[in-house]
Specification:
The protein has 147 residues and is an alpha/beta fold. The protein is 50% helix and 22% strand.
């Protein structure tokens, strides 16, 4: 059913919860996993336009992706990783189309009030614009330190 799963990582504790679900699904479906992280800092947003060098955030994000990719590969999964910069929702949707993914997996954070306005916009935009199914996994509040 699913051949290629795009996993949108946000470099938070919620990623571990999301990955535990995705690993099992990928094994069951014999699907390839494409990890994606979008750096969102100022340099990441303007790097192309202003010909800027990588920020510390971007270097850390790439190292994080390589680590997760290696961990999943060592567990026997077919996995690749892609780093992007800019607006997360736009990059997630663009990557899903370009890479012919048939499922997008993301973690929700269960924010409330103002944090929903700040953090919930990525999932909201992806949810309304995606042309393929979404798997939304609620991060465990205890693991996220939000209990």
């Amino acid at each position: 059913m699913f051949k290629k799963i795009l996993v949108a990582l946000d470099h938070s504790k919620a990623d571990a919860v999301l990955l535990s679900h995705v690993k099992e699904l990928a094994r069951l479906m014999q699907a390839e996993v494409l990890l994606l992280h979008v750096s969102t800092g100022w340099k990441a947003q303007w790097q192309r336009d202003l010909n800027l060098t990588d920020s510390e955030e971007m270097r850390e994000d790439r190292a994080y992706l390589r680590k997760i990719e290696g961990d999943l590969r060592s567990e026997g999964l077919r996995v690749s990783a892609r780093h992007a910069a800019g607006k997360p929702a736009r990059e997630i949707l663009k990557t899903a189309r370009e890479e012919n993914c048939d499922l997008i997996a993301m973690a929700t954070h269960g924010h409330r009030w103002l944090r929903d306005v700040i953090y919930g916009t990525t999932i909201t935009h992806v949810r309304h614009s995606a042309e393929i199914p979404l798997l939304l996994v609620r991060g465990n509040p205890e693991e996220l330190g939000e209990s």
